[in-house]
Automatic annotation (TrEMBL):
GO terms for biological process: positive regulation of cGMP-mediated signaling. Transmembrane segments: none annotated. Residues 271-309 form a coiled coil. PANTHER family: RUN DOMAIN-CONTAINING 3 PROTEIN RUNDC3, RUN DOMAIN-CONTAINING PROTEIN 3A. It comes from Cyprinus carpio (Common carp). Belongs to the RUNDC3 family. Keywords: Coiled coil. The keyword Transmembrane does not apply. This is RUN domain-containing protein 3A. It holds the Pfam family RUN. The keyword Coiled coil applies. InterPro entries: Run_dom, Run_dom_sf, RUNDC3A_B. It comes from the Eukaryota. Residues 52-182 form the RUN domain.
Length: 349
């Protein structure tokens, strides 16, 4: 009876653990998917005017990213630390980013709570066009990441790498934020609005090449079925709207292309600087090695000469012992010459 009870308890525990793991996996999948939609929405919205805090698309994106960075976060470390947020992780893990904004965020007088500082950092990183760089640098510090996140967190999984790739495209957008106001008070919870993505349908503008080919093939066949997501373009105004959307999408892609090209040029210039510095260090090292070898040979010659002089002194000493005469002047001369060779002044009183 007791054995069967233990077996059933273990089975229930295993099932519960499996269900918990599935829940965490679904959370990760949902957050990454909705983040992808959010980034796409921001890119579609952006034209020439900077995006600011009044944009609903940005508000939703900020909430999504805050949920991602807070997924399976360990919270307060001890009773005197207080309530922590993802900012405490970013502050440590991103400290090695060149010319980072961490100290500037820390010194802001109107922002006190950890959550508010995290939200301010997100906005500054977007204005700097370096959000992806910050998160990628933080992920490389695996020790700090494991210190702040529990097992199963997005930041500890391969989804984090997908996230950094998605955020690169935001460098093509100009953001402008005021680091004050209700958005940075840190008191209100970030709430994700899923309704824009629940209503999302595949439009003709964003069909992939494969889908375009399939739709053309199906339209040529006798028993073709109309694609449920392709709107029927029947008037001139609809064609104009479609052209405007395509033109806007072209501008966005072109802006992303320019940003990525600039990023590549920056990395190439940094690589050239590192290579030049490496060449200088290599040349300096070779010069030091040659100099050390030269000094070594000189010291070896001095040692050999001193050994020879020492042997001569021993020989003369033996001769003097036999004749009871000590060549004092000769001894002083040899010592003086030897010490001068090794750089030690010698005075003969």
């Amino acid at each position: 009876m007791e054995q069967s009870f233990m077996q059933s308890a273990m089975a229930m525990g295993a099932q519960s653990k499996k269900g918990f793991s599935r829940s965490i996996a679904v959370e990760r999948k949902n957050l990454i998917t909705v983040c992808r939609f959010s980034v796409k929405t921001l890119l579609e919205k952006y034209t020439a005017e900077p995006i600011d805090d009044s944009s609903e698309e940005f508000i939703n994106f900020a909430a999504i990213l805050e949920h991602i960075l807070s997924h399976r976060f360990k919270g307060s470390g001890s009773w005197f630390d207080g309530q922590r947020s993802f900012w405490d992780f970013i502050r440590l893990a991103c400290s090695k980013v060149p010319n980072n904004c961490i100290s500037s965020i820390e010194n802001m007088e109107n922002i006190n709570s950890s959550r508010a500082k995290g939200r301010a950092w997100l906005r500054v990183a977007l204005m700097e066009k370096r959000l992806s760089e910050y998160i990628a640098t933080a992920l490389r510090d695996s020790r700090t990441t494991r210190r702040f996140y529990d097992e199963g967190a997005i930041m500890l999984r391969e989804e984090a790498t997908v996230l950094t790739g998605m955020l690169i495209g935001l460098g093509a957008i100009d953001f402008s934020f005021c680091l004050k106001g209700e958005a940075l008070d840190g008191k209100s919870e970030a709430v994700i609005d899923y309704t824009p993505y629940l209503k999302f349908t595949q439009s003709y503008d964003y069909l992939s090449d494969d889908e375009d080919g399939q739709s053309v093939d199906s339209s040529n066949s006798d028993d073709s079925v109309e694609h449920p997501y392709i709107p029927l373009v029947t008037d001139e105004e609809s064609w104009r709207n479609k052209c405007r959307k395509m033109e806007q999408r072209f501008k966005i892609i072109n802006a992303q292309k320019g940003y990525l090209e600039e990023l590549v040029r920056l990395r190439e210039s940094q690589l050239k600087k590192v290579e030049m510095e490496n060449k200088k260090l290599t040349a300096g090292l070779e010069e030091l090695q040659l100099q050390s070898q030269k000094e070594k040979r000189e010291l070896e010659n001095i040692i050999l000469e001193l050994q020879e002089q020492l042997m001569n002194l021993h020989f003369h000493s033996d001769q003097c012992e036999k004749t009871n005469k000590w060549p004092g002047n000769m001894l002083m001369f040899h010592v003086d010459v030897s010490m001068k060779r090794i750089g030690i002044p010698f005075k003969n009183d």
